[in-house]
Amino acid sequence: MSRKKILVTGGAGFVGSHLCERLLNEGNEVYCLDNFFTGQKQNVVHLLDNPYFELIRHDVTAPFFIETDEIYNLACPASPIHYQYNAIKTMKTSVMGAINMLGLAKRVNAKILQASTSEVYGDPLVHPQPESYWGHVNPIGERACYDEGKRSAETLFINYHKQNNVKIKIIRIFNTYGPKMHPNDGRVVSNFIVQALQNQDITVYGQGNQTRSFQYVDDLVEGMIRLMNSKDSFTGPVNVGNPNEFTILELAQKVIELTGSKSRIIYQPLPSDDPMQRQPDISIAKKELDWSPKVNLDEGLIKTIDFFKSII
Ligand SMILES: NC(=O)c1ccc[n+]([C@@H]2O[C@H](COP(=O)([O-])OP(=O)(O)OC[C@H]3O[C@@H](n4cnc5c(N)ncnc54)[C@H](O)[C@@H]3O)[C@@H](O)[C@H]2O)c1
């Protein structure tokens, strides 16, 4: 078996650490690059004994060179409190990170996958969102550093492909949850679980009738690997997410039920630019990658709750 050399940027983060582990288990050599802004060594510490795993402290806004066959470009804070902390840095990470990693892919002839996001659709006017929808994004809003950074990265990817024949893949990831999410990053699933386990009030913004679709991390990792291994002519963008829609209120109630918590639900005003609805149209992923999510919300929440019980 030939051992592929694979670079994962943002590899010490929530999704990246699951991806590194899966790629190593499949017999690859994995280089995990991270500046540890939101990622943690703890997420990958169990991989450090593996001789085919290397952890590299580096910031993707600076150039980086390594011989590699594939690059998964995940480096970028993903939760609003972290990406808004330094909005300029967030854009630099998306844009300069994409330029640096695309330059590397071009130089060493590696295939490169960009972790894009459903946020490129903004507050969508089309529901569910197909990849052909151009989105409804406020370029000067609170979320713009992330949304527009990711949109620019997609533009860079497609143009490196057209101009320089770089083999690219763009995945648009919808809300993903699972073990190793950062406990304090304000994302809805981790928030609710932590609040429920501590019997604190569960905060729902607005009336809680905004909907989200929640994808378990194993399903995402499977989709990413299938996309990387798909035929070269298929570049994406491709939506990868779970189309089962729940309201935020339903999620809160489910978490309370599964944790047996005494928490009460309280309501706070809706933040600006918070999308009301988000649901992936996954027809392309089904057709091109033969992919669809396998883990249902209860099953995924139970595994995630077990993880949070072990760390708080
Ligand atoms: N989790 C989701 O629901 C979701 C949804 C859509 C898209 N995504 C995308 O998937 C990727 C991973 O998300 P995640 O949920 O694991 O988030 P995360 O914050 O846990 O992981 C991001 C990782 O990137 C690292 N990083 C940030 N800036 C960096 C820089 N300048 N140089 C090097 N490393 C840097 C962080 O330290 C962290 O380890 C991100 O690109 C995110 O935009 C995630």
TrEMBL record:
Keyword line: Cytoplasm, Decarboxylase, Golgi apparatus, Lyase, Membrane, NAD, Signal-anchor, Transmembrane, Transmembrane helix
All residue ranges annotated as the NAD(P)-binding domain in the record: 7-302
Subcellular location(s) of the protein: Cytoplasm; Golgi apparatus, Golgi stack membrane
EC number: 4.1.1.35
Keyword Cytoplasm: yes
Obligatory cofactor(s): NAD(+)
Xref: InterPro entries: NAD(P)-bd_dom, NAD(P)-bd_dom_sf, UXS-like
Annotated membrane topology: Single-pass type II membrane protein
Gene Ontology terms, MF aspect: NAD+ binding; UDP-glucuronate decarboxylase activity
GO annotations of cellular component type: cytoplasm
Pfam families: GDP_Man_Dehyd
Primary location recorded for the protein, binned into one broad class: cytoplasm
Pathway: Nucleotide-sugar biosynthesis; UDP-alpha-D-xylose biosynthesis; UDP-alpha-D-xylose from UDP-alpha-D-glucuronate: step 1/1
One record GO biological process: UDP-D-xylose biosynthetic process
Superkingdom assignment: Bacteria
Family: Belongs to the NAD(P)-dependent epimerase/dehydratase family. UDP-glucuronic acid decarboxylase subfamily.
Protein name per the record: UDP-glucuronate decarboxylase
Organism of provenance: Flavobacterium frigoris
Upper classification of the organism: Bacteria, Pseudomonadati, Bacteroidota, Flavobacteriia, Flavobacteriales
